[in-house]
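I wish you would study the pair of lines that follows with an eye to the fold:

===
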Amino acid sequence: MQENLSEPLSIDDIAGFAMYSKFHFSREFQRVTGVSPGRFLSAMRIREAKRLLLTTDLTVTAISHTVGYNSVGTFSSRFSASVGISPSDYRRFNGFVHSVKLARKPDTGPGSSVCGSVTAPEGADLGLIFLGLFPTRVPEGKPVSCTVLPLPGPFEITGVPAGTWFLLGHSVPGHACEALTENQAVHVGSLGPLEIRHDAPVSPTAFRLREMRVLDPPILVALQRVRSKAFETDIVRAAG
């Protein structure tokens, strides 16, 4: 996938390269990564677009073609939905956003809470730790609720609406100024699906960070500057 992001790859193409049947490959890929091959490929294309926007002078149109989109409009819509801002704004703000928008409806009520403790490998090079609840295993778009921790330890995410969510987290090394770029020992974690009900308490959750692997879904959501701002002002969740 990584070597052919500009090509119109089909599941048949990828499965054939792996010498699997399409159906068996799709099942095994989803079992190992947690997402379908097509969804993973789409996420890789958006991740590469993020990198190109920050490291090259290519136009948005050229980047859209480079990562396999024939329509710049479709690319821009997909990018905005996944990252949280448009490609041009992502470049203009150097990969940062200034406010977290939560995917909560006004009539969802106060919500429940998810709590627990974050652990990480000894000696891990961590920055601020972002934890968010998302509808899929790909950290993209708007979390339903989130929090930021300065260090591993206890956490609580409040205002969680009823539903089925995945608890996803990541931490970028502090020396990287919170930016998600290549060749960094980013630490990630994932739990779920978690069933949240307003009439039943949620048991404390043990959440372990580990070094990101090639089969982990790419981190698409742009939250870096928000995390720094949240830490500075002790506001760890913002709604928009």
